[in-house]
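Figure 6 in text form: structure in, sequence out.
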């Protein structure tokens, strides 16, 4: 389980706007913003209000795209996130689908954010009843 993740990005404001727009169906919003000598730092949160994704200025010489998976409340929210990412014109990696190789009921979609990071919206549907 991830407590928080910090990404170094080329344009903090643009990337914060991207994440809050595309992941709005998952409840992502800006929780806080503060200035540093290198530029602004933004903390994004989900419905619980705790900043878990931090965006800060790109450190010189850094080229480290990462993978970030954001939980979506339903498969429909995964579809909506993917549609919003498409509207933003970013690179689309994988259309929404079930990924049984991860586990039964793993429904996800993958795309790149404006800085080239591999971003995923995922919903986990677990079987109920006796094992």
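Output sequence:
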């Amino acid at each position: 389980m991830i407590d928080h993740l910090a990404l170094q990005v080329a344009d903090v404001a643009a990337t914060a706007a991207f994440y809050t727009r595309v992941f709005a169906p998952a409840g992502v919003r800006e929780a806080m913003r503060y200035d540093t000598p290198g530029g602004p730092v933004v903390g994004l949160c989900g419905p619980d209000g705790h900043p878990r994704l931090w965006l800060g200025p790109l450190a010189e010489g850094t080229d480290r795209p990462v993978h970030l998976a954001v939980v979506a409340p339903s498969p429909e929210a995964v579809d909506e996130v993917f549609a919003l990412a498409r509207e933003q014109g970013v690179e689309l990696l994988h259309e929404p689908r079930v990924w049984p190789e991860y586990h039964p009921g793993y429904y996800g979609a993958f795309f790149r954010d404006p800085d080239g990071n591999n971003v995923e919206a995922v919903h986990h549907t677990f079987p109920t009843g006796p094992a």
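Caption detail: The chain has two helices and eight strands.
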